[in-house]
Amino acid sequence: MSYVEENNGVASSIALSKSLISIEGLKPPLPQAIFPGLENLKVRMASCNAKANLHIHCANEECGHTETKKVVLHCFVRYSDCCYRSRFVKAKKRLQSFNIHSSRLIHLTVGFPTMPEFHKKDKVVQQKLLQKFHRMCKKAGIELKGIRVFDFQDRKEEYIHYHYALLPGNIDIRTLQKVRGELIAKTEQEFVVRIIGYRPKKSLFKYFAKRIAGCYGDFPNQFFLNQKITLLDYYKNLFNTRSLVRVSRRLSCYVVPNSFLCEVCGCKECHIEIEILSFPEDKGIDGFVGYR
Q1: pTM, to two decimals
Q2: How many domains does the chain have?
């Protein structure tokens, strides 16, 4: 769970540690049976955009400082558009944290055969194949350095593909296709490789941020996953899966820690309690409204 606080007119998002959170008056609506985490996910989504009081207690016993902030809760679940704007802003900040200084990057895509429906195990198999592809490209004299995002395409059957934003370098399409052919011969797993060309980093990162935030397709046919799959399918196959991957280990990034500092003693460990004040009008406490 995360919250957005208005700070001088600028909205900032901070993720809360599950181990330090208790939410007053909010419990799973159904017995936790086959998929216990699914009910917790429904509760999390039901509280998205709810107004709440955030009670912050300093863990330092000598200090004991307590403060309360009025916040708006965001679930940051990439299933619907409930808090898409905040997810998009967070994704852009994440992309900008990589030490990529080139103003133009190489846009490359790798696609896999269409399938009736997507399953988590398919993504695992595809990622292992991509790792082999990276290693074989390096042996052939092409080191792929950049980032990669996972993408769907709106078709009758699922077309899973991956977008790369690569640092400028000597990337020859003929060599890539040769490596691709050799890997297909070894693994008997089909895939296609396409170089779209150089693109401005700003526009490419904007495109990537949409995918990371859970918005797929291109205008005017954009869609979110709740329009295509059930919440159960999302939970089994896509929940807590990474959509952004760093391709090269040499590509570093900085991460701003999402921690609460005590304003009195500066302690970084604080206990958080969330008191729900009001839920969005279009959502029930059970979280089923709008979710399948």
Answers
A1: 0.79
A2: 2
